[in-house]
């Protein structure tokens, strides 16, 4: 049984309480997936995009309230120019009309975190359109982390705070969070990283303070419903253990 360690009868709490409200995923391993198949790295990113679509569907079907996907980091600009160009063009491939219609019909709200101003205007327009067309939706919040870096996020928060406030003494953790890109979003309950790496790679540095971390060797293009349920199941076991202790 994937979602319950105990039968609902044995449980003294609502089983739905232990579904993670916010899952954040570091979608890693596209390059290795392609190389192992003798294909160019860009083919791995294309396959990764398909896996992203599947995971989004799986998450709204499982009634996850927030899903954050690390799609492009501030460090990723340092990759070879051909690869960067391909990665930067992916929103155009991803946000096709069918996907937008699907997201709208499933009540998904698309948002972006990161400094989008570095992307070409045509790509910024595509992201803005996805955001605008889904802004009235009230279901799952789907955050794409694009040109996102946890350090850059904290620095921009400090700068904006200093611009807007005279009194540094008033600054506390709750107030600081209002200056982060994620201001309207709870911290992730569960952070997943694929491909066998065990790093945060500048992802959600502030917000990950209390998150459960789960790592899998599965490469991102192979990440499927089974892998997602395994991650959620491990999360639930940890929470159940904490409750029973
Ligand atoms: C993740 O896959 C995608 C991005 C970082 C954009 P990688 O491209 O990092 O794949 P590996 O880690 O080299 O296999
Ligand atoms: C993390 O993966 C960034 C994304 C998944 C977008 P990377 O492959 O870029 O990170 P490092 O280089 O292994 O730290
Ligand atoms: Mg990688």
Overview of the molecule:
The protein is α/β, with parallel strands linked by helices and 245 residues long. The protein has one domain: Undecaprenyl pyrophosphate synthetase (3-Layer(aba) Sandwich), CATH 3.40.1180.10. The protein is 42% helix and 14% strand. It contains eight helices and six strands, in the order βααβααβαβααββα. Strands 3-4-2-1-5-6 form a six-stranded parallel sheet, with helices on both faces. Strand 3, helix 5 and strand 4 form a beta-alpha-beta unit. Helix 1 crosses helix 2. The protein is globular and about 55 Å long. The two termini are 22 Å apart. About 4% of the residues have low confidence. The structure holds 3-methylbut-3-enyl trihydrogen diphosphate (2 copies) and magnesium ion. Belongs to the UPP synthase family.
Biggest sheet layout: 6 strands, parallel
Q: What compounds sit in this structure?
A: 3-methylbut-3-enyl trihydrogen diphosphate, magnesium ion
Tell how many strands the DSSP assignment holds. 6
What's the number of structural domains? Answer: 1
The proportion of residues in beta strands is: 5-15%
Shape descriptor: globular
Keywords: Coiled coil, Magnesium, Metal-binding, Transferase
Subunit structure: Homodimer.
GO cellular component, one term: cytosol
Protein name: Isoprenyl transferase
